[in-house]
Design a protein that fits this description.
Order of helices and strands: H
Distance between the termini: 161 Å
Number of strands: 0
Number of helices: 1
Strand content: under 5%
Helix content: over 70%
Largest sheet: none
Structural class: mainly alpha
Shape: rod-shaped
Length: 111
């Protein structure tokens, strides 16, 4: 009877140990599945945040580009106006110079 008791206790202990290992493996697999799912969720969320940031950055670049173009156009028009003014003064100068030469010539002829 004592031998049977020892044999039973050894078998019971071994069975408990095997069950414990099987439960531990199941828990490890379940934990790994949860961990993988959490990683996928985090990756999806980070991807969404990166996409949102990229969209905002493209919008900001578009606004900056528009603003730069507006400033460049204003500067171009300012310079164009200044060039036109200089051209007008130069044209006026040339016409006046020619007029004064013709007037002197006419006075010389008449006088």
């Amino acid at each position: 009877m004592i031998i049977q008791q020892r044999s039973f206790n050894a078998l019971k202990s071994a069975t408990i140990r095997v069950q414990s290992i099987v439960r531990m493996k199941k828990q490890q697999i379940a934990f790994q599945n949860i961990k993988d799912a959490a990683c996928r969720i985090q990756a999806a969320w980070r991807g969404a945040l990166a996409h949102r940031a990229a969209v905002r950055e493209r919008a900001a670049i578009r606004i900056q580009s528009w603003w730069k173009a507006l400033r460049a156009r204003k500067e171009f028009l300012r310079i164009k106006g200044a060039v036109r003014t200089i051209e007008e003064y130069y044209t006026t100068y040339c016409i006046r110079k020619r007029f004064l030469q013709q007037r002197r010539a006419a006075i010389a002829i008449q006088g």
